[in-house]
Amino acid sequence: MVADSFGVLAEPTRRRILDRLRTADSSVTELVDGLGLSQPAVSKHLRVLREAGFVSCRTVAQRRIYRVEPGPIRTAYEWLAPYRALWEHHLDALERHLDAHHDREEPR
To answer: Stretch 30-36: mean pLDDT, rounded?
Structure first.
């Protein structure tokens, strides 16, 4: 599931669509206008996002309104947690090293 999520998120246009939907639910037309893409391209990417569970769709009159679904994003975030902790540990060690190096150079 997580590997598939990263495959979906690897496509830059899908990330742009998610960024737009993060701030407000939108119709296909609003996404087309806001992203400067063709309607078929936006619809294709929305289908992939919907099938992967990243977005859902509701019908209002004649329009389909899309919104972000947090589940798959939360799953990816949780999967990344140990790697984030590893990087934070390494960055903290680098900061300590640089601080110690800087402290030795200051008396000049």
So the answer is: 95
